Amino acid sequence: MKVTSVGPYPPGRDPDAYERTRRRVLWSMPSGLYVLGSSFAGRRNLMTLNWATQVSSEPKLVAVSVEREALSNGLVREGHAFSLNIIARSDRTLVRKFVKPLDDDGAPGELGGFAVSTAATGAPLLECSLAWLDCQLREATDFVSHTLFVGEVVDCGPSELPEEVEVLRMEDTRMSYGG
Ligand SMILES: Cc1cc2nc3c(=O)[nH]c(=O)nc-3n(C[C@H](O)[C@H](O)[C@H](O)COP(=O)(O)O)c2cc1C
Question: I need a surface site. Which of 52, 114, 134, 171 has the fewest CB within 10 A?
């Protein structure tokens, strides 16, 4: 089958106008807003992230996309794991705290002033999260700006999750990312 390569710009469209439209359409994609936990060689971090989704049911795989330059990128890659912390809508201001690397003085149970515990993989879990996934790294694919990490869910909690959970989504904030 002959495959014709198209893009990144559609023929006959003004590039500037097209870029604006493309950004707005990409921003309109609904997403959750999470805190990614990572750890390697005694250095831990928590990072705000919205590019996360389940990508396979057997095995249970979750994908996250992390900036190549982020501290968390190296920690996920070297630590072979990540946690995904699901945040309550009422805690929306929390995500502003995790947009630059946290100070990690190695104190157990605490990271950058936040109460944490340690998942089976070694990734930090935010104590105030509504729910969490602990993922063992299975695949890593580098793009120019980001790395797509695919992890298998190896643990999760809490064991008693309320029926009605108000989880934080990008639309609950005035923030946007990517596009
Ligand atoms: C609302 C919001 C969503 C974000 N989503 C992502 C994301 O999906 N992937 C990513 O790599 N960075 C994302 N970021 C940026 C990171 O939080 C930020 O670059 C962080 O400093 C990098 O993490 P580091 O502490 O590991 O260096 C987002 C930031 C905000 C404010």
Answer: 171
